[in-house]
Amino acid sequence: MALIRRLPWHGAAWSALRSLHARDVHAILLHGGAGIGKKSLALDFAQSLLCESPVAGGQACGACSGCNLALSGNHPDLRIVVPDAMAELRGPEAVGDDVTDLSSETDDGIAGPPREGRDSGKKASREIRIEQVRELADFLGVSTHRGGARVVVLAPAESLNQASANALLKMLEEPPSATRFVLVSDSLDEVLPTIRSRCVLQRVAAPDRAVALQWLREQGVDDPEERLAAAGGAPLAALGDAEQQLDDATRSGLFALLAQGAALPPGEVAAAVPRALPLSAAITLFQRWGWDLLAYRAAEYVRYHPRHKASIARIAKASATESLLGWLRSLEAMQAASDHPLNPRLVVEAALFSYIEALKDPQSRTRRES
What we know:
The protein is α/β, with parallel strands linked by helices and 370 residues long. 46% of the residues lie in helices and 7% in strands. It has two domains: 11-206, 3-Layer(aba) Sandwich (Rossmann fold), CATH 3.40.50.300; 241-369, Zinc Finger, Delta Prime, domain 3 (Up-down Bundle), CATH 1.20.272. It is built from 16 helices and five strands. It has a five-stranded parallel β-sheet, with helices on both faces. Helix 12 packs parallel to helix 15 and helix 14 (321-336) runs antiparallel to helix 15.
């Protein structure tokens, strides 16, 4: 468990959590958009419950034995349950060489103890497995080791499958004394209703733009305005934004190709796309460009790439919504297969060729497809 410090926009959510704790609420579900620090907040709250010398506002002191154990990931009264695919977020000692896929799209990950007995090279699970939940029964079945609170942090709650959710329900309904469950979700609608109904829902709001920008500047982020816009206003997502995996030259080159719209010569595509580039990042850039085109057609609004508003406006006005949607559907399929051993350059070229086709004479194209 990494050192957690409450993020500057969490004041209202923190006060709400302290109030729920005072009311002896045993199960809380934090929900809100991705990239705003909900899991950091959950960990901060968990540490405060385990702290033996809390300071003003109920915050953890960071110096007592309970805090030191929590920060080192060794507190016997804390369990953190996440899918194996988030294992890299536990720290280097928790990631085994036997897991080949550790990608995650969560906003600020946390994870529990490493699982044993995985097959060599086995792809890490993106679900919270029933075995992980069943292991909590042993944890909850004994007295607390340090005579204080016992805390379970589980994220993301939408990764519980039906079997693991059913196993968790009994624990949520009849928890031992002094036990707190803190669940986290990026997508509340995807959390099983049976789980939602057993928890008090606490929404975590996204920060104001000015607060988010100031925080990003304090983290040393270059061009925080563009990064925050590309991340949809989510500051933690801006720190690790997928688009930023592209180097500046590659990003600029791809934007130059997209900005030509239907006039982009196919021959230029083959010459301009580099031989090696992160495929998922390139597709993410294309998807955001497509969403900006749709947003401009609908409301003259550019969310992700405001610096390119002039090009986006020109192309959007000359395009058809159905053609753009078709291009985005093809990108979605490419993104879903981006972690397979494909040739990234060929996939990016195919995405650009389909972009050209989608923009050429969109009205007649739409009629042909109808």
